[in-house]
């Protein structure tokens, strides 16, 4: 831990009259028990108050969900900012940055914590940047892409799908790359891959997906089969197949469910598990979105 930043954090607490103030607000939703890797997502709602955050190994992104603007005072990295925060406003606190906040109204927000070691690996392996990359602190900004990623992670958190690892990993990689491209102190130049993933790399991935549809597939494993970083794999796979890896896997799971509904007498719950869905309701939701009907209604038509 940087000694200067430790002294800075202690000085901040002393200046504000806090002995050992830390964030004690409990989240209304948390990804802590869902097994998500590299990213931690929590939703908070709390009355007026204040908090300080200890020096963290994570990069922290907060997206306001407040229906009405909230009066906010923030101090981070020795700088002070005071303004109204409304729905869609975003703040970024880099790892190892002392932070204090005081809000005068009811607050509602989603917090993303991205592991700094994962960010460094993405910077080096995917973008050719130094592994000791730093983000710039931001008090209040608007970023439609960053907001969309945060809301998609929050939506997945609300659904609490244990089998959604591939989707969460894809969003986590998108989050890391976007932060590096827009808010790193050193900006990357992304290589152009016009032709997508070659067949010699694509076919083994497709074979693996089809063989393992009932498993909790991970983006890192698919990328390793192709011999690429998760970022480059996702980008080139979409160019080759027209859809992101998680979308392709979902399509194939629905197609297998169709086959099993037509050709077997397995229960819907059994078919859900055989196709990699974690429950009857999970299969039903994705099946209806893809086909416009329920598994039971589909079976009645095709059998």
- The spatial strand order of the largest sheet comes to 1-2-9-4-7-10
Largest sheet: 6 strands, antiparallel
- The helix count comes to 11
What's the alpha carbon Rg, rounded to whole Å? 22 Å
Kindly name the structural category.
Answer: alpha+beta
N-to-C SSE string, H for helix and E for strand: HEEEEEEEEEHEHHHHHHHHH
Q: List low-pLDDT spans.
A: 5-23
Using DSSP, what is the number of strands? 10
CATH architecture of the largest domain: Sandwich
- In CATH, the topology of the largest domain is named Jelly Rolls
Ends apart, CA distance between termini: 64 Å
Q: Can you tell me about this structure?
A:
With 303 residues, the chain is of the alpha+beta class. The chain folds into 3 domains: 181 residues, Jelly Rolls (Sandwich); 44 residues; 55 residues, Arc Repressor Mutant, subunit A, CATH 1.10.10.60. It is 45% helix and 19% strand. The chain is built from 11 helices and 10 strands. The strands form 2 sheets. The chain has a 6-stranded antiparallel beta sheet. A hairpin with a 2-residue loop joins strand 5 and strand 6. It is globular. About 6% of the residues have low confidence.
Architecture blueprint of SSEs:
Elements (H helix, E strand, L loop, with lengths): L2 H13 L13 E2 L8 E8 L2 E5 L4 E7 L5 E7 L2 E7 L4 E4 L5 E5 L3 E9 H10 L12 E4 L2 H16 L5 H19 L15 H13 L7 H8 L3 H12 L3 H19 L4 H7 L5 H12 L3 H8 L1
Antiparallel strand pairs: 1-2, 2-9, 3-8, 4-7, 4-9, 5-6, 5-8, 7-10
Helix pairs in contact: 2-4, 3-4, 5-6, 6-7, 8-10, 8-11
């Amino acid at each position: 831990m940087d000694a200067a930043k430790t002294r800075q954090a202690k000085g901040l607490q002393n200046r504000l009259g806090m002995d050992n103030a830390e964030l004690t607000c409990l989240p209304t939703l948390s990804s802590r028990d869902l097994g998500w890797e590299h990213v931690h997502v929590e939703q908070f709602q709390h009355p007026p108050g204040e908090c300080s955050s200890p020096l963290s190994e994570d990069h922290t992104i907060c997206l306001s969900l407040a229906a009405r603007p909230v009066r906010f005072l923030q101090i981070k990295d020795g700088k002070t900012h005071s303004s109204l925060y409304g729905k869609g406003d975003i703040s970024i606190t880099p790892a190892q940055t002392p932070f204090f906040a005081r809000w005068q109204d009811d607050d509602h927000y989603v917090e993303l914590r991205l592991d700094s070691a994962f960010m460094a690996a993405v910077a080096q392996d995917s973008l050719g940047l130094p592994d000791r990359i730093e983000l710039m602190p931001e008090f209040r900004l608007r970023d439609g892409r960053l907001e969309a990623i945060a809301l998609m992670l929050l939506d997945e958190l609300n659904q609490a799908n244990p089998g959604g690892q591939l989707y969460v990993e894809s969003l986590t990689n998108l989050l890391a790359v976007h932060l590096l491209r827009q808010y790193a102190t050193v900006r990357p130049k992304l290589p152009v891959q016009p032709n997508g993933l070659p067949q010699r790399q694509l076919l083994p991935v497709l074979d693996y997906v089809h063989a393992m549809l009932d498993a909790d597939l991970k983006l890192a494993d698919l990328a390793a089969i192709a011999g690429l970083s998760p970022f480059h794999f996702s980008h080139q796979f979409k160019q080759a197949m027209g859809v992101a890896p998680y979308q392709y896997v979902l399509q194939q799971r629905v197609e297998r469910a169709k086959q099993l509904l037509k050709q077997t007498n397995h229960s819907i719950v059994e078919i859900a598990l055989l196709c990699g869905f974690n429950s009857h309701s999970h299969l039903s939701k994705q099946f209806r979105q893809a086909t416009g009907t329920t598994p039971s209604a589909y079976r009645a038509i095709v059998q």
